[in-house]
Amino acid sequence: MKIGIFDSGIGGLSVLHVAKRLLPHEQFIYYADEKHVPYGEKSKEEIVGYVDEIIQFMIQHGAKAVVIACNTATSAAVAIMRKKYSLPIIGMEPAVKKAIDLYGDKKILVCATPITVKGEKMMNLVERVDKHHLVDLVALPGLVHFAENQEFDTQNVLDYLKDTLSYFQLEDYGSLVLGCTHFNYFKDSFQKLMPHVHFLDGNVGTINYLMKNIEPEKQDGTIEYYYSGRAVNDEELQKIQKYLLRLEEMEKIGEEQK
After folding, report:
1. pLDDT tens digits, 81-117
2. SS3 177
3. Beta pairing class for 222-227 and 230-231
4. Given 70, 96, 112, 176, which residue is catalytic?
5. How high is the pLDDT of residue 256?
6. Which ranges of the chain have pLDDT less than 70?
7. Is 153 helix (H, G, I), strand (E, B) or coil?
8. Distance CA 118, CA 236 (A)
9. Which residues make Cβ contacts (< 8 Å) with residue 202, sequence separation at least 6?
């Protein structure tokens, strides 16, 4: 049996990266819905339809559990999908509580897609855990486009961040919650603007929760990659490997903070 992990694009590779480290003997299906990326600019109804189709694909390909490696898709569809399907469906949650627990002596900036920022799930989360009004939210949809085009540490990215974050006193923030899996590729650019900030995401917490809901298997770990239902070709696989190398570089930035 396999574990399905999917995202609107390549952001969810950051979740797969963690999953492979923590579950090295599992078999994975990674599905990037490149026909419909970015989800953050679609309607909730559209996203629910995409997610439903992908979960059916995962089941047909032998998935014993599915990870929605996308905060936007989780916000829009996870509750509906859990009612419809019996297999474990694991969603993402921005690490807002963890940021408060670890770095609650300073303000916290949560960046995500527009749907996640405005969604009921996010509002309920912040209301539940942010007792001292430390959390501010910002939508950064442009980073999804940069990531999908493999444009990372460039002046265009830095200018976009400077412009979008110009409304915030960045020196007031002690932590930055990456509330979209695509944003993990940009830690170096964020660090140039917020050199003392601590980065947090929901990736490890998501895989830890997955591990509580499956029976681990002892088999040769494999990964099958699909783009919107079709197997990736060799050129696309080479591109995926470049993304994974980028994630390893960004992971080192998080390690330096510890």
Report:
1. 999 999 999 999 899 999 999 999 999 999 999 988 9
2. strand
3. antiparallel
4. 70
5. 52
6. 254-258
7. coil
8. 33
9. 71, 92, 93, 94, 95, 179
State the alpha helices, DSSP H only, in 152-233: 155-164, 187-193, 203-212
List of domains in the chain? 2-92+203-256 (3.40.50.1860), 96-200 (3.40.50.1860)
111 is catalytic: no
The values of phi and psi at residue 132, to 5°, are -110, 15
So what's the pLDDT on residue 115? 85
Task: Give the Cα-Cα-Cα angle 257, 5, 28 (nearest 5 degrees).
Answer: 100
In whole angstroms, give the CA distance from residue 81 to residue 89.
Answer: 8
Q: Is the CA virtual torsion 244, 39, 226, 149 positive or negative?
A: negative
Q: What's 8's DSSP letter?
A: S
Pick the catalytic residue from 47, 51, 67, 180: 180
The span from the CA of 185 to the CA of 178, in Å, is: 10
- Number of residues in the chain: 258
Burial label for 241, CB within 10 Å (0-12, 13-18, 19+), is: exposed
Six-digit token string for 8: 């609107």
Query: What are the Cα distances from residue 130, in Å, to 1, 12, 202?
Result: 40, 27, 17
Is 180 a catalytic site residue?
A: yes
The sheet carrying 63-68 orders its strands as 89-90, 63-68, 2-7, 27-32, 222-227, 230-231
- The alpha carbon of residue 91 and the mean position of all alpha carbons in its chain are separated, in whole angstroms, by 10
